[in-house]
Amino acid sequence: MKQLRSLTFALVLPVLAAFGQPNPSPKKSGSAATLAGAAPFPVGAALSPRYLHKNRAYTDVAIREFNSVTAENIMKPRGLSRGRGQYHWAAADSLVAFCRQHNKQLHGHALVWHESVPGWVKSFSGDSAAWEGILREHIRDVATYFRGKVRSWDVVNEAFSDTAGRMRNSPWRQHLGDDYVARCFRYAREADPAAKLFYNDYSLESDPAKLAAALRMVDDFKRRGIPLDGVGLQMHISINTPEAGIRKVMREMAGRGLLVHISELDVRINTTKDSLLTETPALLAQQAEKVRQVVRAFVEEVPPAQRFAITTWGVADSNSWVMNWRKQEDYPLLFDGNYRPKPAHAAFIEAVRGK
Ligand code: 9MR
């Protein structure tokens, strides 16, 4: 009986302890031949329930190679919201359970994004106070629900357009003005005081006007005490993206004291939109070199305490958004269509070891 009780304790206590943990921090073990095992900072992947637990190879790589997870789609407003005050939590709950079971940190993506405005919000009518109300409610409800389950949030995603660093004219900006972004951060902090709060965007490494606009926002937020902890540099790049811009954005953001998350890394090799392109050794070598440059820049430009994570946007080439969404033949990730590590995987590990 005594034995049975201690066995029960041995089995149940760790599970209870894991569930009681407010802010799961990632496991720092694993084989040195894996991305997370080799790196002195968290290494993540964007995961989707379309594949997780359904595709064995995908799930095995996700468990073995990464110690941080971002929800590719299911925690976006359209993934969660079913109507005012109505939410669909089940898919996200299962991702939370996966992260707890496998001791991975979970990064929430994203509270507010112009591409993910729920249908009922699009047809909402009301004055600006009413619009402020629905924005605040969404952030409060979602960030409260995931309190203690996520370590961090992309609070606002892609607020700047691709034209001269101007703000994107999303429904939120139309109804609430430019400063809605700052208020989103305040609402997120109110709902989850422990979560690290990020602004997340793409092309900051290659669009100087967009970078300048983002830096102005960061400086303005610092002056006004808006609770911004870090920046997500999506890093959807190609083998031709200049290294100088990659370094510059990391240096500028780290110099402002922010946490830096390389939040959606992938490196396209199909720079000519060739529909017959295949993954030649030469192209894969160029891709590996670009990944090496990103990781080196992260290690050299960002002080250790500010290195939040490097996250790849997906697991393997066969499930990357580039093929599924951009409908473009490409091979942008660190694992191939058969879930085997590519040259870029070796380059990542070499770069964290200073090679
Ligand atoms: O990879 C995501 C894809 O599956 C979705 O269809 C798409 C629209 O929701 O979003 C993709 O992820 C985007 C991310 O949320 C924000 N940065 C750009 C990413 C690629 O489009």
UniProtKB/TrEMBL annotation:
Positions of the catalytic residues: 264
Gene3D superfamilies in the record: Glycosidases
Annotated ranges, domain GH10: 29-351
Signal peptide: 1-17
InterPro entries (alphabetical): GH, GH10, GH10_AS, GH10_dom
Protein name: Beta-xylanase
Keywords: Carbohydrate metabolism, Glycosidase, Hydrolase, Polysaccharide degradation, Signal, Xylan degradation
GO biological process, one term: xylan catabolic process
Catalytic activity: Endohydrolysis of (1->4)-beta-D-xylosidic linkages in xylans
SMART domains the record matches: Glyco_10
Molecular function GO terms recorded: endo-1,4-beta-xylanase activity
